[in-house]
Amino acid sequence: MKEKELRRSLAVLPMGTVMKLTSLTARQIRYYEAQGLITPERSDGNRRLYSLNDVDRLLEIRDYLADGVNIAGIKAIYDQQSAATMAKQSAQQQPLTDEDVRRILQDEFIRQGGLGHPNSGIQRPF
Amino acid sequence: MKEKELRRSLAVLPMGTVMKLTSLTARQIRYYEAQGLITPERSDGNRRLYSLNDVDRLLEIRDYLADGVNIAGIKAIYDQQSAATMAKQSAQQQPLTDEDVRRILQDEFIRQGGLGHPNSGIQRPF
DNA sequence: CTTTCATGTTAGAAAAGCTAACATGAAAGC
DNA sequence: GCTTTCATGTTAGCTTTTCTAACATGAAAG
């Protein structure tokens, strides 16, 4: 499933294509970017390049606006989502077991404690 | 799975993107088109638009050429493939059972024979 | 040595995209 | 009512990208 993700996040679509795919105007798309709702990549020549994920997000934005949500509201939603994602990532990164933690701290102590005289490998009982 | 196919055959990628995705030059890509190996769509303004399927085919072409197959050879391969596909499609369309065939022929005869001298529905033993 | 093949290179034109600025209709707030 | 704000339209001038067409070329084939 990694390849699909990769393809969906490949920034390869130019403005014109995205306009057609979303039925938004260039003005709208650039405005949403200016408001921080999307961040397309840029080509060497400074042209915007969008991914399929970007297109999906633009469609979402379109729907939110059609539902009367204003841009500040949409931004709030996305900020919240990314905060949640961050938290999840931290959580995922934290599948450090207690054992892992102990090992890491131990390493840390060994490296530190090793100042003038390699401290003979004293093992603190963490 | 229809959506995936649709996306893969959506012609949305401009030349520059395809160049990067395939590491081919514009000259090469246009030449392969001139030789009938690919047929990208065109934008209103006459710019070529490629799909992900096109990109895959270009990568195949690149590999064939690297393996010493010349363009005529590649074309032969693709012609053969599409012939095979055609045949398969016909075959798929042909899940007409003998019974179907008989019914169709019968209808045909009835419609035809049905005027001056209704041939009384004679059934030829096909 | 002459063709053929696959590709490079160049020139001139047109399309597409960029930024920046000003314009505007509808809502919101006073 | 009048004034802001929001989301979008419009325009202008400029740069990048792509297009076609033509000529150039190295390697292989004959």
Notes on the protein architecture:
Two copies of one chain form a homodimer. Chain A has 126 residues and is mostly helical. Chain A has a domain at 2-83: Multidrug-efflux Transporter Regulator, Chain: A, Domain 2, CATH 1.10.1660. In chain A, 62% of the residues lie in helices and 3% in strands. Chain A is built from six helices and two strands. Chain A has helices at 2-8, 15-22, 26-34, 52-66, 71-93, 98-113, and strands at residues 41-42, 48-49. Chain A has a two-stranded antiparallel sheet. In chain A, a hairpin with a 5-residue loop joins strand 1 and strand 2 (48-49). The longest helix of chain A has 23 residues, at 71-93. Chain A starts with a helix and ends in a 13-residue tail after the last helix. Mean pLDDT of chain A is 77; it is low at 96-126. At the A-B interface, helix 2 of A face helix 2 of B. Chain A binds a DNA duplex (30 and 30 nucleotides) through helix 3.
Indicate the CATH topology of the domain at 2-83 in chain A: Multidrug-efflux Transporter Regulator, Chain: A, Domain 2
| Major interchain interface with per-chain residue totals | A-B, 11 and 11 residues
Large-scale geometry of chain A: globular
- Uncertain regions spanning at least 5 consecutive residues of chain A: 96-126
Number of strands of chain A: 2
Give the CATH architecture of the domain at 2-83 in chain A: Orthogonal Bundle
Instruction: Name the average pLDDT of chain A.
Output: 77
